[in-house]
Amino acid sequence: MAAAIELDSRGNSVLVLDREESLGGILMQCIHNGFGLIEFDEELTGPEFAQRFEEKVYARNIQVLLKTTVLDIREDDKHKVIYAVSAKKGMMRIEARAIVLAMGCRERNRGNIRIPGARPAGIYTAGLAQRLVNIEGYIPGKDVAIIGSGDIGLIMARRMSWSGCKVHAVIEILPYPSGLTRNIVQCLNDFNIPLYLSHMVTNIYGKDRVEGIEIAPIEAGALMSEKAFRIACDTVLLSVGLVPENELSRDAGIEIHPATNGPWVDSMLMTTMPGVFACGNVLHVHDLVDYVVEEARRAGANAAAWLSGYRAEREIRVKSGSNIRYIMPMRVNPERENRLYMRALVVKNDARLDVRLDGTEVKSRKLAHVQPSEMLSLTLKPEDLAAARRDSTLEIALV
Amino acid sequence: MKELICITCPMGCHLSVDRDELGNMKVTGNRCIRGEQYAREEVLNPKRVVTFTCAALLPENYSSAAESEIVPRVPVRTTNAFPKEMISELLCVLRKQSIRLPVMCGDIVIKDALGTGIDVIVTRTITLP
């Protein structure tokens, strides 16, 4: 929606295609608060945040097609062609000069992380359980164990507790939680829910319905099977990470970056298919919707600039240095201001972000506390990159 | 001394609260004024914003082929952080609460909930087809 508003405000004709019944995507089931502190300087719930954008979209008379699934994106000589279907309109062929991908991401499931054991009823991804509770009005179970400490899992621990269920444990394979600190405090500590760090699920029991799980600690990188113990529960929620949903992009021949699982993009957030841009969780998984909106606006503005003929004269390569998992985007434009998002590989206090152009420090920023679950951002101005040559490399490291 | 993690925003500042002999509090580790306010409140009177969904009720005599498309739950929240020790009582009320459609975002569901001066409001506009 933010990209559409940006494109529309720059005089382009825009169409939004969405497979859901309403705009807003995942925000509609995120009824908890904490959205919009950066964007609106207020603490809103997901639906409230979405509604502010929805109102702008409709006020601008931007065309919206809901309950419409895009099947294919192709490129012919002049246009991009989108094939989509809906129950109301049937099959559609839509021609566009530019496309902004904003399909979001999908949850990892049990198959993705290979948890051994039986396959009874009662195993859900946290987001599915969230939809069941918050939108459909069903409680998936009474005694819950949550595998993985992602934000949705933590939010669901509180949501299930508030719904009268008992959450017995949150199990995290890593030595640190993968969700935001504030969620550990207000979703687990408030309810005295134990968080087992460096623990792995080694079995799921139950014939028709889940009866319990077995977990074992990991010490010095080795699974301590002899210290395994059992937790009784009737429901297992999985919150083990998100994967950008890029089937459409892949089928269209767009290159996917292995570190982000999202499209490879240049300084304009343009994918390897010229005129196709990407933003939000389909590009890389964000932890705050405010960052998604900022990025989407930028993608919209860049798409508008591209449509009116702007091309980056030169771009320099961005390289992830030590302790950095990835940097988004993969190129910077030395003539413009560049906003970069990156994710740390480590938990560290009093860290420093070290930005080097061909080995020479051009910028440095002190960070009181970094952790992989909290995305870092950085803005580079043209003067920071004044010394850039055509074959320069920008390297950002965490030291 | 009490160690806290600020939950006002996603920064998650690590705070420590010191109290001198007179009971005056000194907060350190906060990066903004909200952190100090949070630490004081968290020690003296902890509060949380409560979010929930209530059952949606169709208007009387309403019949439409599109009935199955109507969202069955209406999301709500407290207008401000709610005293922690009263949350379970509030949840008991909310579990029994149903909301008649259509509703506008911001509509008041419960005025002055449990005498706290805090309202419970709707957080999603739901119209009828």
Write a structural description.
The complex is a heterodimer of chains A (399) and B (129). Chain A has eight helices and 28 strands. Chain A has helices at residues 2-9, 46-59, 110-113, 126-136, 151-162, 181-188, 247-251, 289-307, and strands at residues 15-17, 33-35, 44-45, 63-65, 68-75, 80-86, 90-96, 99-101, 105-107, 123-125, 143-147, 166-171, 195-196, 199-205, 212-219, 222-223, 229-232, 235-238, 242-244, 276-278, 316-320, 324-328, 331-332, 338-344, 348-357, 360-370, 376-380, 393-398. The mean pLDDT of chain A is 95. Chain A is 20% helix and 34% strand. Chain A is of the alpha/beta class and 399 residues long. The radius of gyration of chain A is 22 Å and the shape is globular. In chain A, strand 14 (199-205) and strand 15 form a beta hairpin. In chain A, strands 10-18-11-12-13 form a five-stranded parallel beta sheet. Chain A has three domains: 1-106 and 242-311, FAD/NAD(P)-binding domain; 109-240, FAD/NAD(P)-binding domain (3-Layer(bba) Sandwich), CATH 3.50.50; 315-399, Immunoglobulin-like, CATH 2.60.40. With 129 residues, chain B is α+β, with helices and mostly antiparallel strands. Chain B folds into two domains: 2-44, no CATH class; 47-122, CPE0013-like (CPE0013-like fold, Roll). Chain B contains two helices and ten strands. Chain B has helices spanning 33-44, 87-96, and strands at 2-5, 14-19, 25-28, 47-48, 51-57, 73-78, 82-83, 98-100, 108-110, 120-122. In chain B, the strands form three sheets. Chain B has a five-stranded mixed beta sheet. In chain B, a hairpin with a 5-residue loop joins strand 2 (14-19) and strand 3 (25-28). Chain B starts with a strand and ends in a 7-residue tail after the last strand. Chain A binds chain B through residues 21, 28, 31-34, 37, 43-45, 47-48, 51, 133-137, 162, 164, 180-182, 184-186, 190, 287-288, 368-369, 374, and chain B through 5-10, 12, 14, 31, 48-53, 55, 69, 71-73, 75, 77, 84, 87, 91, 95, 105, 123-125.
